[in-house]
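To illustrate this point, we now present one chain and its tokenised fold:
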Amino acid sequence: MRRLLLAALTAVAVLGATAAAAAPYPPPSNGEGKAAPSRVKQGHCTNFSGDGFAVGADITITDDDRKVGMTQTDDKGRFSSRICFATDARVGQHVLRGTGRSAATSGPEQHRVTAIVTVTGVEESGRGSDPETTPAASVGDLVTTPFGLSLLLLLVLPLISGPLLVLDRRHRARRRAS
């Protein structure tokens, strides 16, 4: 019986550690461009930036190959642009791309940088810092995180192990009595 309890505790510890290690952080990006934040709600904005362009180059910015803006690079060939998503923007990953004249003296004339932005739905909102507009997290939200799953398993373990320990004590008492 003790071996069963030890095995259950070990399984909870291993599952919790595995779930925490599997969480993707930071979200995927090709490293050439940067979106901060890389996770936004529908109707919110991110700052998209990149470098490696010619000084004063016109940069075309696209979201999943749809033009969303234009900007120019600074005196070091860098750009930064605020990109906002509509309140009905498609939920999921969006590829932001900045394309413009390259600063390189050899190679392709055009340079591109990309960054991945994850747009979450309005129903997933409320994870901001304003307690007035932030709804309380539900149990379903907690269970979907690696920490929440580990916590749930740790809370359920006594419900399983308690009756097993009681049965083990009764069994031992019956063996001693006979």
Notes: Residues 33-127 form a domain with the Immunoglobulin-like fold (CATH 2.60.40.10).
